[in-house]
Design a protein that fits this description.
Length: about 550
């Protein structure tokens, strides 16, 4: 026999959960204390529940597994709502364990209908039904989060904590991903479209994360003479390939736009073909389209296509190559030597450095940081006006190392995700954020990174304003003062929170700060001062 809080901790650990992010309160502290006492189990205490849920999201994104957070009842749960919606829109498997007020404690001032809080977010909800069913309820919640690819809240009544139970482990309900073979007629339809193409473009999305899948898709592109492009979420999948045109969509560079405009066929692997990737549909208009995805719900979700293949990206790509070989289909010349030469000559440096009196040019600063920071890293963006430039100027070694945090259009979610990414990768992590996002969601959690000894560098692009609002005022010839803030210098704040801080008002000061990075022994914050009237929100 053991106490319930010990039993549920063991049930969580039996699901191979080793890391939980959270904030303790009376409805979850005994569970988390028991969990942290188990072998190879770690409770990462955050400063705020919003940081806990976003850290779980970042952890799941970089590991490809399940992210787990734990909070107490009432306001602790409501603090996670924005993060829950972000994870729902991100389609990230997250388990949120929420303590709940005792049923008999009707007048508890933290009492709330927790299911009614969760359901509008789009997250799933599972109730721990009794002390005897706890292990099974955990297994079901884990299976749902992984298979449904969304957060699931496991609701745990506080009155169970000190009840005695005979703990018996249950088998995991999760079925690991398996390669799904496509239907023969679907492959034949796809081959018919591809064989007729003269200028094919292969597009790879976040459904092509594994190294084997990326390699198989690249083999197909080489076989048919097609350039390779990616969605934003699949970014940097084919760095080093001479015919990689980079991100396809609203932030494509000029050579990529030329290739997209000339293409007559698009072959999309693991890409939802949303309005940003397709530039409101223009990428697909007048072109034949083949869409391949292991997720049935993704197929034709946003637009009807010419051929649909339900199957694993690697399996489908290899079968397409095999069938194209069998019919002796010639390669096209679309991925030409001339295109490779143009791409090799393409540079991010073609811009005017507008660094001025006490401020730094945004693009110049980003290029300097990109060159100075280790390539083998996790990369996290917060939301903000700076992001359009950041999308094209920062890179990762593997697409899974990039954590996207603007699925809900919120700022302030970057720091939590960066903490999760740093824990999940155990590698240097770069957070690119604005001053508004840092103040909204990053300030308190910077100390979380300090307390847990994370290798995190925070680049704050500080224009002293809410940039999206500032530019609206400017465009209408209105006074932008209401969108501006007289923030304190963030470097001394970072030092007070236990990190290292640098204030940057010139490129020389930025170079000096970056030169110190190899010697860092704690989280670092670089406060980069910008002129709000010199921040281009269009990405060029």
């Amino acid at each position: 026999m053991m106490f319930f809080h010990e039993a549920i901790a063991r049930a969580l650990r039996s699901e191979d959960i080793t890391t939980i992010f959270g904030v303790m309160g009376d409805a979850n502290l005994y569970m988390m204390d028991s969990f942290a006492s188990l072998d190879d189990a770690h409770f990462i205490s955050t400063s705020n529940e919003a940081g806990a849920i976003t850290a779980a999201n970042g952890y799941a994104r970089v590991t490809g597994g399940l992210g787990v957070a734990c909070v107490t009842h009432g306001p602790a749960l409501t603090n996670t709502v924005t993060g829950l919606v972000e994870s729902v829109k991100d389609r990230t498997p997250v388990l949120l364990i929420a303590g709940d007020t005792a049923v008999v404690d009707r007048d508890n001032f933290q009492n709330i209908s927790q299911r009614d809080v969760v359901m509008p977010t789009g997250a799933g909800f599972e109730q721990v039904r009794s002390v005897e069913t706890a292990a099974e309820d955990v297994a079901v919640a884990v299976r749902r989060a992984l298979s449904e690819r969304r957060p699931v809240v496991l609701n745990v009544p506080i009155e169970f904590q000190w009840e005695k139970v005979e703990y018996e482990p249950v088998a995991s309900r999760w079925v690991p991903d398996q390669a799904v073979r496509p239907a023969v007629d679907a492959i034949e339809q796809a081959v018919a479209v591809i064989a007729a193409a003269r200028r094919p473009l292969v597009l790879s999305g976040q459904g092509v994360m594994s190294e084997s899948a990326r390699a198989a898709v690249a083999r197909l592109a080489h076989r048919i003479g097609a350039p390779l492009g990616t969605t934003l979420r699949g970014r940097d999948s084919y760095r080093g390939d001479p015919h990689n045109i980079g991100i396809v969509g609203t932030i494509s560079h000029e050579i990529a736009l030329d290739v997209i405009g000339d293409a007559d066929t698009v072959i999309a692997f693991g890409a939802g073909l949303n309005k940003w990737t397709t530039m409101e549909g223009s990428v697909l208009d007048g072109r034949r389209v083949v869409q391949i995805d292991v997720d049935r719900d993704a197929l034709q979700r946003n637009q009807a296509v010419d051929a649909v293949v339900l199957g694993d990206a690697a399996v489908v790509a290899d079968e397409l190559v095999e069938m194209l070989d069998a019919i002796d289909c010639p390669a096209t010349a679309f991925a030409s030597a001339d295109l490779a030469a143009r791409l090799a000559d393409h540079s991010d440096g073609g811009f005017v450095d507008r660094s001025g009196d006490g401020t730094v040019d945004l693009r110049a600063a980003m290029i300097a940081i990109e060159k100075a920071f280790p390539r083998d890293r996790a990369l996290v963006y917060d939301g903000g006006r700076f992001i359009f430039n950041a999308f094209g100027l920062f890179h990762v070694e593997r697409p899974r190392d990039y954590v996207h945090t603007v699925n809900f259009g919120s700022i302030g979610l970057g720091m939590g995700n960066a903490i999760g990414a740093a824990v999940g990768t155990r590698r240097p992590t770069l957070l690119v954020t604005g001053d508004g996002g840092f103040m909204l969601g990053g300030l308190a959690e910077f100390n979380t990174a300090v307390r847990h000894g994370l290798d995190l560098v925070v680049a704050v692009f500080n224009d002293g304003a809410y940039g999206a609002e500032h530019i609206q005022f400017r465009r209408k010839d209105m006074d932008p003062a209401r969108s501006m803030f007289d923030w304190p210098d963030f470097a001394p704040v970072a030092e007070a929170l236990g990190g290292r801080g640098y204030t940057v008002r010139s490129m020389a000061e930025l170079d000096a700060a970056l030169a110190e990075l190899p010697r860092r022994d704690r989280p670092v914050l670089i406060d980069i001062k910008l002129d709000p009237d010199q921040v281009d929100s269009a990405g060029h």
